[in-house]
DNA sequence: CAAGATACGTCAGCCATGTTGACATTCCAA
DNA sequence: TTGGAATGTCAACATGGCTGACGTATCTTG
């Protein structure tokens, strides 16, 4: 992953000033990153928490409540509040596990898929524009730095459910 | 900025799968990004909002309340709650403007500087580790993509108080 | 089989941080 | 002198975190 080959080992990119810029870039970019889905959600009774739940259920259909808790890093009470509204509104469906009947496997309904689509279309549009403007090698660097910035556990979650998808 | 020179115009980096990975990378990385300062803050009576205020006052000493409102993108009521506790605890000082006496210019006190130091040391440490692991060209790409992901107004704020620092 | 552990749901309450709306003060500028 | 700008503040509310406590299936293990 790490492509440490500056040759002259110029570490100028590690100055406090550069780090500060990176920090602020994360702050402002994250705002942009969430702005479009937020705009969609604010008309409905949902928030960012619902977006996250829907996103990860879509990514890993049939995932359990416990898995989702691990990925999202919130308490079950907090997640439950969100899931309950998604059940009630018919966006998410919970099926009792076949092997372990204690588990609830979560799936998006058609209605859930259409919300997910709307949200991720908006978010992907911005991401795509940024990628296109920056170009492939910048995107590569972007991903590399972000991965290095995650906690180890988060990095594992990040690899996703399917592995060999290249 | 944009270094679109793939030659063969291979747009494979714009697949939905790649965009999804970028989206999740932002999500997980942002968690890591805020984790260390959050740990420091949770012992005190402060939260992320205080961190942001202190950060930007430190970056632009003497900035006004109005400036801060623009940068942070929250309501004055929300910001005021935060600023009041920072005043009361002697971390931030407000001086009445000399030219325009309606304005309050904000400065960190010594105590404020020491909190800012603690928070930004923690955050910079993670950023530095990520930068170092990723290498200079990845960092370049990281910054390029993040800048492209911001809203235009945010991008202006991001340039910071000093201009010619390249 | 009995007992403990696990997965999940839920009630109740607290906290941080965002929001609107309304109103007061001070001061600049036309 | 008057309108608007910059700021502070009170009140009320929403979202989405949190802890603690408790209940209920269900699985697992002695």
Automatic annotation (TrEMBL), chains A, B:
Sequence ranges assigned to domain HTH marR-type in this UniProt record: 16-151
An example Gene Ontology biological process:
response to stress
Entry-linked InterPro entries? HTH_MarR-typ, MarR/SlyA-like, WH-like_DNA-bd_sf, WH_DNA-bd_sf
Q: What is this protein called?
A: MarR family transcriptional regulator
Question: Which SMART domains does the entry mention?
Answer: HTH_MARR
Note the superkingdom of the native organism.
Bacteria
Please give the Gene Ontology molecular function terms for this protein. DNA-binding transcription factor activity
The species is Cypionkella aquatica
